[in-house]
Amino acid sequence: MAARSQRPVNVGRLFHWAAEQGRPTVMHLDRPFDIAPDSGTRFDVPALAATVEDAAGWLYGAGLRHGDRLAIVKENHYDFILLAAAAARLGALPVMIAPIRSEAHIRTLLTRISPKVLVMGTTVLERMTAAGVALDDPGMTLVAVGEDRPGLPGGTLRIDDVRGGARPPVRFRGPHEPMLVTHTSGTTGVPKLVVHSPATTLAAVPFRIESYRLPLMTSRPQDVVASGISFAHNRNLSWTNGTLFRGPRKMVILSDPGLENVARMLAAHPPTSLEACPNVFQYWEELADTRPELFAGVRRFISTFDAVHPRTVRKFLGASRVRLPLWAWGVGQSEIAGIAAGVATRSMVRPGKPRAHDATNVGFPPLVRVKVVDPETGRKRPRGKPGLLMVRTKSRCLTYLGEDDRHRAKDQGRWWNTGDLGEYAGYGRIRLIDREVDMIPGMSSIELESTLLDRLDRASEVIVLGVPGQPPIPVLCMRDDALDPQEWDRACRGLPEMDKPRLVPWDEMPRTATWKVRRGELREQLLGSSDTYGTGQWT
């Protein structure tokens, strides 16, 4: 048995290490893996390690070798990280790309990657083919995974076509060499490809914090830990590391955030810990209203990637029947991990609390250093004065793949320019205001949107767009796609002047792979304009 002190820092070792340690966790899937469609929906840790081993074999059979790049573009599922682990065992560099909406953006990313092997989900491949986007790069092998689809491009291989060869050699790359590439959310255009090493991920404390024993905050042996995030992102790596290390009873994978699917899985596997992206939790508020029993045993809710609104936190904490449920939230970037994090209880999000001191947008830097600076002079700002958030951390990425110049423009010595606006809030805390590109002078769209959500019970999404030369424009998703004028008048009482609201159905709202709203695309869609108050130079 491996020594317990030898904590893995390479994703290629992670599942094998957990199997050697005898971790008792069993993973339950909402659908079979795309790379193992006949293996069912129940995997213990040795089975996960075996799936990684099998994937390494067929990737090697497809021609992937040490130093090559593997592009993974497929439907959302946990097997993103299994493929990344398989490639890392070969010493190849895996690049994980979620099934983003724009086929042109996917093509641009593939050009930057120049992969030796491309693993693409059949539904994404069908979209690319229908859009006339070619995937015939010289020297690239295309392997399709997922359900069969008609009209796959000529030369496309399936897993069985590249399986059955010689057992590949295991050749890990060094601790400071590139190990894994994920992409940014892409709220403002083509996502950036973020390159990380073992030293900037699993060896860095921010990625390991969940493996420590923290009262009320980390998993216990009897826990059922469910996750409904975008599994193509770095959060999947830190979540997997912490969860496998703590060894809860179950891991529950929610690859599809649809209400019916989530209700089915949570009823079958009642969670004690539940994680999702903030906008997904907003969407699930309907379940909290209609099926509160699904969340009765949850003692820890976790939201990552973006700011979360108080109404959302309040609803889910109210649905839990445990004595002291907690909401843990974090805001970060793929490039650096966390920026600010906090914990909320029922009393901290009770109605009527001042937005400027809200527990869901005022938090502490999570094991990183943060300073607030004037965007023009770079000088440190005093408490209560907004500025750009600069972060210093050992988990900062190595570069942007294919865009080194863009990375250098945000790398200011020991500090990283996040492009986010915030201010000091006292006692070491940071108050989040907005992305710089989305700023509205004199206000915070985060706080304005939170207020409107509190006052509009049937709203599942509220976005406020700043447009130079006119009042801010509110964009609403209503559960029944209707808004009574009197209801809107009551919601606006005492708030800054806004333009008339625009209604957009939830499924027509342009979103990133992490379900954030692509505000720039929404602005173009509704207004035919890209004008903003922000410069966007740090996006």
From TrEMBL:
Pfam families linked: AMP-binding (PF00501)
Key word Ligase present: yes
Keyword list, A-Z: Ligase
Domain of life: Bacteria
Family: Belongs to the ATP-dependent AMP-binding enzyme family.
Protein name, as recorded: AMP-binding protein
Gene source species: Streptomyces rhizosphaericus
Record-annotated AMP-dependent synthetase/ligase domain positions: 38-400
Stored Gene3D superfamilies: 3.30.300.30, N-terminal domain of ligase-like
